[in-house]
Amino acid sequence: QVQLVESGGGLVQAGGSLRLSCAASGRTFSSYAMGWFRQAPGKERETVAVISRNGGNTYYATSVKGRFTISRDNAENTVSLQMNSLQPEDTAVYYCAARQAVSYNTYFPGASGYGNWGQGTQVTVSS
Predict the structure, then answer these.
(1) What is the pLDDT of residues 95-115, one digit of tens each?
(2) Please, which contacts does 13-18 make with residues 24 or more away whose CB atoms are closer than 8 Å?
């Protein structure tokens, strides 16, 4: 098991940027594929971006491609989400999640296989 703690959320104007970070406990962080997901009020949870164990492969939702960048530092047990050109529709609670993976370079876009979740951090983008 790995415990996850997100940080970096907040209130930003449209067009602005935020950087979310997720700190993981334990010594097996590199055994996990990681992902960022979000849920807006009244909407279902959706995938934002995911990354493979070795950081070499990533996937982005169409709505964030070209604006958001996911990265990880296995030495520091962290995964980050750099969010640029934020829009009001990006307003949501953002969650970091981890799933154990055998493959070093496979990413997993679906949320169902992620067994470890953080508490979430609120991102609010004003127009």
Answers:
(1) 999 999 999 999 999 999 999
(2) 13/125, 13/126, 14/86, 14/87, 14/88, 14/125, 14/126, 14/127, 15/85, 15/86, 16/86, 16/125, 17/82, 17/83, 17/84, 17/85, 17/86, 18/83, 18/86, 18/123
